Amino acid sequence: MxxxxxxxPIRKRTxxxxxxxxxxxxxxxxSAVAAELRITLQDAxxxxxxxxxxxxxxxxxxxxxxxLTTGEVSVDQQQKEFVANVxxxxxxxxxxxxxxxxxxxxxxxxxxxxxxxxxxxxSGQNIDYFQLFDQPGIVxxxxxxxxxxxxxxxxxxxxxxxxTDAMGQAVINDVPAGDYxxxxxHPRADLEAPGMTQQMTFSDAQPTRLQMALTLERDxxxxxxPNATRxxxx
Length: 234
Ligand SMILES: [Cu+2]
Hints:
It contains 1 helix and 17 strands. The chain has about 230 residues and is mainly beta.
């Protein structure tokens, strides 16, 4: 009895048990005050549901480490378009850019949040080549061959960010109770317009609702390649 080799593991186990209890208490405390944001967005001109808008709850820096679930996503290229057109990821996540077309693409970004280039490649290539996105911000994707190809990766500060579906709706769960800045983003919206950044209050008592109509700028990009049988671009 009294062997130090024996005593040490016991002490470790006790510490482990205390730590587990503490974590349980912490988890219970966190989930008890988790709030929800329910979002409904529409196009102000047409009244139609607004798809592919991003909403993010901006947490203070000291709260961010609790909400940094990262993952891997694919931004595909199908029929000379980026699919999905808007992808939301948490910083620290990775993305690859497979080519599902039977022609070559040349994907690039000059955005400060992530500069990269995947020179000419075909179907089945670059599938294992994941890029790391560790800076929050908007990454605008282009293709050197097809000028109209334009896609976006919204790199969020935390996982409290979503994009709206075809009904213009989205939900953010597990928002800590409190007052936070909420940012709304859409590729064709004026980000300086009123309401695109606003203060909202979150409590566990009831969901917080965000209902808003966004004024969109005209989509000026060339939608498709000029038809070779026509003499003009119209
Ligand atoms: Cu292309």
